Amino acid sequence: MSLISPFRGLRPATNHADEILAPPYDVLSSAEAREKARGKPHSFLHISKPEIDLPEDLSPYDPQVYAMAAQNMQKLVDKKLLLQEDIPVYYAYRLTWGKVQMTGLVAAASVAEYDKNRIRKHEYTRPVKEDDRVRQIEAVNAQTGPVMLAYPKAPRIDEIIAVATSGEADMDVTGEDGVRHQLWVIYDDDMIGELSAGFEDMPAIYIADGHHRSAAASRISASLGGEADAIHHRFLSVIFPHHEMKILDYNRLVKDLNGLSREQLLTAIEKNFTLTKSDKPVKPATIRHFGMYVDGQWYELEINKELVPEDPVERLDISLLSAYIIEPLLGIKDPRKDDRIDFVGGIRGVRELSKRVDGEGWEIAFSLFPTSMDDLMAVAEQGQVMPPKSTWFEPKLADGVVSLVFGRI
Question: Is residue 381 part of a domain?
Fold first, then answer.
């Protein structure tokens, strides 16, 4: 099966996209989604977070929630607010956020190639989150949340997408967060053929964000079986050139000092790091540097260079921080399960760290330099797994731009 293919996408009708587009389902709590969708009956949140239309005390994993998603999606189809293409197409999708601009290709990616690891992974998944996506896909008979993928250097692909985006966009919406979302439909057979062939020549592409969605798609594919070219053997994806993708820092908060005094902690840290006081919040400007906030004081930390290994996972900044401070000194062995640690995306800024330490019961915070796309791809190439919460991608893909449906609506 080819790595990617065009598909008959389901997308907002002209002049209704601004009513429909919504933040991705996994960046909002149920309460936040309920508030965000207030007074917006056509928001895609009614499909991606359908618990907002049910009693607040109902579990978001209750069967009624998935049934509501299907009902809400059908309403938008019946009102002709969501329309399906007559023929298979690709789409060019551009996000603009300040000075950051990313333009990728919306395509149906192959589950078989994902299963063979030609679509490379770098994270473990959690069963409860996988189960949630499986049930949502089964309920709406579609994949509504795209997987963000990255492709390596491919100048010809970049050129074709540039041509495809040279005219007026078929959709142009700026969200409340200031991110501009533009979509161009690629109908041209020659363009479609060259894009398909160009990706087919690539040895691999890489999951940036969306491991639970791709894992759920694999489970759906296996459960439905059938002909190899059936649409349910593919998953919704947006594939960006890796050099355009923006990763922000993903910072840490810890509840306590694991029985250590501040002086004991600082003494222990100085065995492996150069430690310098700072009179302002520390946002690391390069790799191997860290910020630390404890007891009202910011510090800049630089790890001793001889401690940095060659292994692509162990040399990551978050791995070094975990190996020399978070695990041995603060006693956190498994950050996936330990409620003494929390994670703060860099979109909130480093002042969010001191704010939460000073006023929300956390004892210490660490700021990190963002993981690079090259590091992410190196880890994936080795078949290894990155530490949890290593990457925070911005801007986020919107839900509702295009959905991949199993059959005709």
Answer: no
Q: Are 10 and 403 in contact (CB under 8 A)?
A: yes
Under a CB-based contact definition with an 8 Å cutoff, are residues 149 and 405 in contact?
A: no
Say which residue the tokens 């019961």 belong to: 361
- For 322-337, the pLDDT digits (tens) are 999 999 999 999 888 8
Question: CA 222 to CA 56: how far, in whole Å?
Answer: 34
How far apart CA 139 and CA 116 sit, in angstroms, is 27
For residues 232 and 299, membership in a common domain is answered with: no
- Six-digit token string for 272: 């492996």
CA angle 311, 314, 315 (to 5 degrees): 80
* Cut 0.85: pTM above it: yes
Pick from 359, 145, 351: nearest CA to 237: 145
Q: Give me the pLDDT at residue 14, please.
A: 87
Is residue 146 in some structural domain?
A: yes
Mean pLDDT of the chain: 95
Do 306 and 171 sit in the same domain of this protein? no
Q: Are residues 400 and 283 in the same domain?
A: no
pLDDT in tens, 73-94: 999 999 999 999 999 999 999 9
CA triplet 237, 28, 256: central angle to 5 degrees? 115
Which residue type does 354 have? S
By the 8 A CB rule, do 45 and 52 touch?
yes
Note the Cα 283 to chain centre separation in Å.
Answer: 22
Secondary structure of residue 226 in the 3-state scheme? coil
Q: What confidence score (pLDDT) does residue 353 get?
A: 96
> Quick one: 128 exposed, middle or buried, by C-beta within 10 A (0-12, 13-18, 19+)?
exposed
Split into its structural domains, the chain has a count of: 2
Single-letter amino acid code for the residue at 113 = E
